[in-house]
Amino acid sequence: INLRTVYAFAREMYQKKSNARIQYGTAGFRGNADNLDSTMFRMGVLATLRSRVLGGAVIGVMITASHNPEPDNGVKLIDPKGEMLDPSWEVIATDLANVTDQELEEQVAKIIKENNIDVSSSSNVYVGMDNRYHSPRLLKAVADGVIALKGNVKEFGIVTTPMMHYYVVAANTKGAYGQPTEEGYYTKLITAFNALRGDKLENGNYRNLLLFDGANGVGARKMLQFIKRMNNTLNVEVFNKGDGKINHECGADHVKVQQKVPICMPKADPNTRCVSVDGDADRVVYFFTDENGTFHLLDGDRIATLIADYLMDMVKKCGLELNLGLVQTAYANGASTDYIVNKLKVPVACVPTGVKHLHHKALEFDIGVYFEANGHGTVIFSDNAKNLIKKAAGEGNINAKQFLLIIDVINETVGDAISDMLLVETILNHKGWDVKDWLGCYEDLPNLQLKVKVQDRNVITTTDAERICVTPVGLQEAINGAVANYKRGRSFVRPSGTEDVVRVYAEAATKEDCESLAYDVGILVH
Ligand code: NG1
Ligand code: ZN
């Protein structure tokens, strides 16, 4: 392979437009789409090299800026088992994205040398994108990066982030996880969901009606595809289908952070279940408005507790010895953590923000449930758990058979808004619960998130799963001082990995206290 080709592409088509340093963060590279062409091309190059290092395994590349506003885009790489790019390669990605066009050829040669890559070996890259208008242009840049290094590239067009993870795993396991196609994905999830539902579409307080906010993103399109194939087993009405701007006053992030109903949703009967996904459909939150017009949020913590409780029950019913754990981040509502530890008696772990940390920790359990408060999460099952459940099912255990269907409705490869939603609908239906029954499990502590613009957000460094500030010196003591003034107060700050801001989180016994605490801490950071 002649590395001159890489340089020629870079020089002629994908010149670097900005010299600002960028970093492969919690969700890859993100920023204004106008400046991303060169980064995309380079990530195509990198994915090809990554595949070669791993013996030609399929590497995924997803083009999306998730819940960010429309002008933004981004790129993240998916490792062969569906996991986020290995941390050691995040550093390689950052270096590759930051060198000048003139240095690019040399940098690629360096990666090849340091990782002993056989450039003539086979390489397979899958690439997909969300529905932003600049995504096709950026997808072409990724594909050109692969082609410049003579790799194989397969384009999947418009897909959700979790579909991309699914394709990668399905391909690398030679179909054992399902077929690596769009139909394969629908078939796997829908078959399991319909079997779990049977003909009992309503049960107890559970009504078969769900209003779906698609955030004007790819989740809306795919939900419509699900509906076409589901035989009316779930009655879903889709809103924010793509006519408006992606994530603009709608979507899971808006609903969670603003704690408000998204735009363009109809005025439904009180207590109607509503669900919001984000722009690339890897996050999901539920909400409803009660008979007094009060808005209620059922966020990722709620979903996690509902699932953990249900799965614990399944384990018991099957008579199996399996340890189940729940993984959260510091953003989890304190009341949810109390509920899990004291009521559900499930072990809880807290890790830094970012799916890779949650996923990694969840692997330590036979059954690991992980969720960020914002609605990103899933469940992963160890081989041991799967084998025991399969064995029990083989011996005729009805509960174990049901458990296998539950596993199939879950997209274990990454948080998947639609798969999570199908699981929640299954559980609510089985329990005969409406949103009020669900909300009644525990009462959220009032909480608030603020964004603070500072000159250099990276002067803030943290420890203990981001709950304690290490630098600037003295900041943590000051936060402690502020928190001590409020009943059940808790607050922490950290630099965002996806936006140029410092995030402030606060919770306290009352809404007023929580607002006041967030403000106090915001001032300290400023
Ligand atoms: P940052 O910007 O690092 O806080 C946000 C979310 C993460 C994760 C990533 C990736 C919060 C507080 N943070 O990260 O949980 O979802 O985006 O999309 O919600
Ligand atoms: Zn997302």
Automatic annotation (TrEMBL):
<dbReference type="GO" id="GO:0005975">
    <property type="term" value="P:carbohydrate metabolic process"/>
</dbReference>
<feature type="binding site">
    <location>
        <position position="280"/>
    </location>
    <ligand>
        <name>Mg(2+)</name>
    </ligand>
</feature>
<dbReference type="InterPro" id="IPR049022">
    <property type="entry name" value="AMG1_III"/>
</dbReference>
<feature type="active site" description="Phosphoserine intermediate">
    <location>
        <position position="66"/>
    </location>
</feature>
<dbReference type="InterPro" id="IPR005843">
    <property type="entry name" value="A-D-PHexomutase_C"/>
</dbReference>
<feature type="domain" description="Phosphoacetylglucosamine mutase AMG1">
    <location>
        <begin position="299"/>
        <end position="433"/>
    </location>
</feature>
<dbReference type="InterPro" id="IPR016657">
    <property type="entry name" value="PAGM"/>
</dbReference>
<dbReference type="Pfam" id="PF21405">
    <property type="entry name" value="AMG1_II"/>
</dbReference>
<feature type="domain" description="Alpha-D-phosphohexomutase C-terminal">
    <location>
        <begin position="478"/>
        <end position="518"/>
    </location>
</feature>
<keyword id="KW-0961">Cell wall biogenesis/degradation</keyword>
<dbReference type="GO" id="GO:0000287">
    <property type="term" value="F:magnesium ion binding"/>
</dbReference>
<dbReference type="InterPro" id="IPR049023">
    <property type="entry name" value="AMG1_II"/>
</dbReference>
<keyword id="KW-0460">Magnesium</keyword>
<keyword id="KW-0597">Phosphoprotein</keyword>
<feature type="binding site" description="via phosphate group">
    <location>
        <position position="66"/>
    </location>
    <ligand>
        <name>Mg(2+)</name>
    </ligand>
</feature>
<keyword id="KW-0119">Carbohydrate metabolism</keyword>
<feature type="binding site">
    <location>
        <position position="503"/>
    </location>
    <ligand>
        <name>substrate</name>
    </ligand>
</feature>
<comment type="pathway">
    <text>Nucleotide-sugar biosynthesis; UDP-N-acetyl-alpha-D-glucosamine biosynthesis; N-acetyl-alpha-D-glucosamine 1-phosphate from alpha-D-glucosamine 6-phosphate (route I): step 2/2.</text>
</comment>
<dbReference type="GO" id="GO:0071555">
    <property type="term" value="P:cell wall organization"/>
</dbReference>
<dbReference type="InterPro" id="IPR016066">
    <property type="entry name" value="A-D-PHexomutase_CS"/>
</dbReference>
<dbReference type="Pfam" id="PF02878">
    <property type="entry name" value="PGM_PMM_I"/>
</dbReference>
<comment type="function">
    <text>Catalyzes the conversion of GlcNAc-6-P into GlcNAc-1-P during the synthesis of uridine diphosphate/UDP-GlcNAc, which is a biosynthetic precursor of chitin and also supplies the amino sugars for N-linked oligosaccharides of glycoproteins.</text>
</comment>
<feature type="binding site">
    <location>
        <position position="282"/>
    </location>
    <ligand>
        <name>Mg(2+)</name>
    </ligand>
</feature>
<dbReference type="InterPro" id="IPR005844">
    <property type="entry name" value="A-D-PHexomutase_a/b/a-I"/>
</dbReference>
<comment type="similarity">
    <text>Belongs to the phosphohexose mutase family.</text>
</comment>
<feature type="binding site">
    <location>
        <begin position="372"/>
        <end position="374"/>
    </location>
    <ligand>
        <name>substrate</name>
    </ligand>
</feature>
<dbReference type="Pfam" id="PF00408">
    <property type="entry name" value="PGM_PMM_IV"/>
</dbReference>
<feature type="domain" description="Phosphoacetylglucosamine mutase AMG1">
    <location>
        <begin position="181"/>
        <end position="285"/>
    </location>
</feature>
<dbReference type="InterPro" id="IPR036900">
    <property type="entry name" value="A-D-PHexomutase_C_sf"/>
</dbReference>
<feature type="domain" description="Alpha-D-phosphohexomutase alpha/beta/alpha">
    <location>
        <begin position="108"/>
        <end position="175"/>
    </location>
</feature>
<keyword id="KW-0413">Isomerase</keyword>
<dbReference type="InterPro" id="IPR016055">
    <property type="entry name" value="A-D-PHexomutase_a/b/a-I/II/III"/>
</dbReference>
<dbReference type="GO" id="GO:0004610">
    <property type="term" value="F:phosphoacetylglucosamine mutase activity"/>
</dbReference>
<feature type="domain" description="Alpha-D-phosphohexomutase alpha/beta/alpha">
    <location>
        <begin position="57"/>
        <end position="89"/>
    </location>
</feature>
<keyword id="KW-0479">Metal-binding</keyword>
<feature type="binding site">
    <location>
        <begin position="494"/>
        <end position="498"/>
    </location>
    <ligand>
        <name>substrate</name>
    </ligand>
</feature>
<comment type="function">
    <text>Catalyzes the conversion of GlcNAc-6-P into GlcNAc-1-P during the synthesis of uridine diphosphate/UDP-GlcNAc, a sugar nucleotide critical to multiple glycosylation pathways including protein N- and O-glycosylation.</text>
</comment>
<protein>
    <recommendedName>
        <fullName>Phosphoacetylglucosamine mutase</fullName>
        <ecNumber>5.4.2.3</ecNumber>
    </recommendedName>
</protein>
<dbReference type="GO" id="GO:0006048">
    <property type="term" value="P:UDP-N-acetylglucosamine biosynthetic process"/>
</dbReference>
<dbReference type="Pfam" id="PF21404">
    <property type="entry name" value="AMG1_III"/>
</dbReference>
<feature type="binding site">
    <location>
        <position position="278"/>
    </location>
    <ligand>
        <name>Mg(2+)</name>
    </ligand>
</feature>
